[in-house]
Design brief:
Blueprint lengths: L1 E5 L9 H8 L4 E3 L10 H14 L5 E5 L1 H12 L6 E5 L5 H8 L2 H10 L1 E6 L4 E6 L1 H9 L8 E6 L7 H10 L4 E6 L11 H11 L3
Parallel strand pairs: 1-2, 1-3, 3-4, 4-7, 7-8
Antiparallel strand pairs: 5-6
Length: 206
C-alpha cells in the first residue's frame, strides 16, 4: 500500500497517524513537510500536488485537519489521476473558523498590518501568518473531491466541528462517506478504523 500523508497545520510528517500507518500497518508512507512554500492552504496544496505528480502510482492520499483540506483541494485539481482519499477531520470551513476566532476589528488589523503573530505549538515558536492565509482560505475552504473519499471525524471535535463533514457528506453522498467516532480532533483513540476504511475504499468501485 503506497500512501501520501498530508499532516495538519501544527502536525508533522512523523506524527501519530503516519507512524501508525508505517509501523502497525506496514504501509509505504510518503509524508512531505507541507509548509515548505508557506503556511496558506494554497501553499500546502501546491506542495502536495508536487508530491502526487511525482508518485502517480499512489493508492491513497491521506490527510489530517488542514492536510485533509489540502488533499481535497488536490483531488479537485487532479481529477484524471487514480487514487482514493482517506481523511481525518479535514478542515472544511477553514475561513469560517478564522472568522470565529478573530473579530471584525482584529481581521481589519490583520489586513492593514499584513500579518499576525501565531503561537505554533508544533514548532514551539511564534510564526507570522500573512493576510493571504485568510484570502486563500476564502477560496479553498469547501472543495469538492473528484475521488472517492472516506472521512473519519470525532463527535467531540472542538477544532473542526463534525457538522462541517456531515454537511459535505450529505451534499456529496456519491463521493464522500463519513465515519463518526467518539473522539476529539486528534483522533488518537480511533486509529484502529484506518485499515478497515482503507480496505473499503480500495475494494469499492470508483
Amino acid at each position: 500500500m503506497k500512501v501520501i500523508f498530508a499532516h495538519g497545520f501544527e502536525g508533522s510528517p512523523d506524527g501519530s497517524k503516519p507512524t501508525y500507518m508505517r509501523e502497525e500497518l506496514g504501509w509505504d508512507v510518503i509524508a512531505p513537510i507541507l509548509s515548505t512554500k508557506g503556511w496558506t492552504i494554497e501553499n500546502e496544496t501546491d506542495v502536495l500536488l508536487g508530491v502526487i505528480d511525482e508518485n502517480p502510482d499512489v493508492d491513497l492520499i491521506s490527510g489530517s485537519s488542514m492536510g485533509g483540506l489540502a488533499a481535497l483541494n488536490a483531488s479537485a485539481q487532479r481529477p484524471d489521476l487514480n487514487f482514493k482519499l482517506l481523511l481525518f477531520a479535514p478542515a472544511f470551513g477553514l475561513a469560517d473558523g478564522l472568522r470565529r476566532d478573530y473579530n471584525k476589528l482584529q481581521l481589519a488589523g490583520w489586513k492593514i498590518k499584513g500579518s499576525v503573530p501565531y503561537e505554533h505549538r508544533g514548532l514551539g515558536q511564534t510564526i507570522e501568518l500573512g493576510y493571504d492565509f485568510l484570502q486563500a482560505a476564502d477560496k479553498m475552504s469547501w472543495p469538492e473531491p473528484a475521488h472517492q473519499c472516506i472521512i473519519i471525524h470525532g463527535t467531540d471535535d472542538t477544532i473542526v466541528p463534525i457538522e462541517r463533514s456531515r454537511k459535505m457528506a450529505t451534499q456529496l453522498p456519491e463521493k464522500i462517506q463519513l465515519i463518526e467516532v467518539n473522539d476529539g480532533h486528534r483522533l488518537q483513540q480511533s486509529l484502529e478504523h484506518i485499515a478497515k476504511a482503507a480496505d473499503k475504499l480500495l475494494t469499492a468501485n470508483s
